[in-house]
Amino acid sequence: MVKGIIVHEVGGPEVLKWENIEVKEPREGEVKIRHMAVGINFVDVNYRKGLYSTKTPFIPGVEAAAVVTDVGPGLTGLQVGDRVAYAGPQGAYVEERIISADKLVPLPNSVGDVVAASIMIKGMTAQMLLRRVFKVKKGHKIFVHAAAGGVGSLLVQWGRSLGATVIAAVCNEEKAVQAKEDGADHVITYSQENFVDRVKEITEGAGVEVVYDAVGKDTLKGSLNCLGLRGCLVSYGQASGAPDPIPVSVLQPKSLFLTRPSLFHYIGTRDELLETAGELFAAVATGNVGWEGMMICQSKHFTW
Prior knowledge:
The chain is of the alpha/beta class. Strand 9, helix 4 (173-182) and strand 10 form a beta-alpha-beta unit. The chain has helices at residues 42-49, 113-133, 150-161, 173-182, 195-202, 220-225, 263-266, 270-286, and strands spanning 2-7, 16-21, 30-39, 63-71, 83-87, 96-100, 105-106, 141-144, 165-170, 186-189, 208-213, 227-235, 257-259, 296-297.
C-alpha cells in the first residue's frame, strides 16, 4: 500500500498524518511516478497552518524528483524508468502519485535526485529573477536582501557568476559568513548598519541597477532609495509582512520600475518551463550555483 502525509485539518505539525492512500492508474496525458526525494518549503508550512486557502483534506508538498513507473494511454515523450522532476502541483508528500505529464521536466544525469528535489522552486525562482524579470549582465550592481536564505543564496552565487557586483544584506554575522562564502562582493548586516547608507557608499552615490527584496514591509521603501536611474525593484517575498502601499509618484524622480513577479507566471507554457529548468540544471552542472543547506527529505525517510 502506498503511504503519504495527509492534512485533515490545519494547525501545527501534529496535523500531519502518515496514512495509506490510493493511487489510481494514469489517464490520457498523465503518468504515475515514484518519488525519490521530496523538497520541503515554507509554502508547505503556510498551507499546513491554514495561512493559504485550500480545501481539506490535502497532501502538502510542491516539488520533487521521481521515476516514471507507468504512462497513460497514447502518451509519448515519457517512458517507464525516466528520471523527472517538477515544481508546482501540490501533493508531493507521498511515495507515489499521478501527475500531468506536462508538469514534469527530464532530469539530466548531472543532477541527482536529492539536488533536484531541493532546488526546483528556489532555483527556477532565481533563474526567473536574474534572467527574465531583470536580465543581469556583466558590470551590473545588484543588491540582494535576505542573502543567506534559499533563493537569496542562489541569487548571490548566480549573480556573481554572471559578472555582477553583488551586495548582500543579512541579519547576523553567521549569515554574513555564508554570504561571503557564496561570493558576495559586499555584505551588509541589518543590525549593525543602515543598508541604504551602505549601498550608497559602496556605489559612490550611483545606486544599483536592481534590488531583489524578499523581506517586504521592513525594507521595501529603503530598497527604492538604493536604486540608480531607471533601476528596478523586484519584490518577490514579504517575510516581514505585506509592504505598505507605494504611490506611483515616488517612481518618477529616477524613472524607476517596480514589479512583484510570480514564478508560475514565468513557467506557464511548456517551452518556458523547459527553458527555465534547463538553464538551472546547466548552472548546477557547471558549479555556478550550489545547493548546500537546502532542506530535503528522501521519501522513504518521511517522519513528520
